[in-house]
Amino acid sequence: MLTQGPLLLHDNAPAHMTRVAQAVVKDIEFEQLSHPPYSPDLAPSDLYIFRHLKQHLCGTRFVDEDEAKQATESYLEKTCPMNSI
Known about the structure:
This protein is mostly helical. It has helices at residues 14-17, 19-27, 44-57, 65-79, and strands at 7-8, 31-32. Strands 1-2 form a two-stranded parallel sheet.
């Protein structure tokens, strides 16, 4: 998926849904992923984990998508073990 070009996932905030914003997204040819308003897919607790994951992976270069997945899974296994749920 990462090699197919940029994908844009944003919420349906009014600023993101204006005609001007939509025209810019279309002009730069980003593919938009649909994201329903108030989606439970991204809970505030998830954003906390993503912030730390981003800091952990900052500056890391990956050879391919599989290497990025492996690094992410390794980090999540260390910080969010299944037996702690």
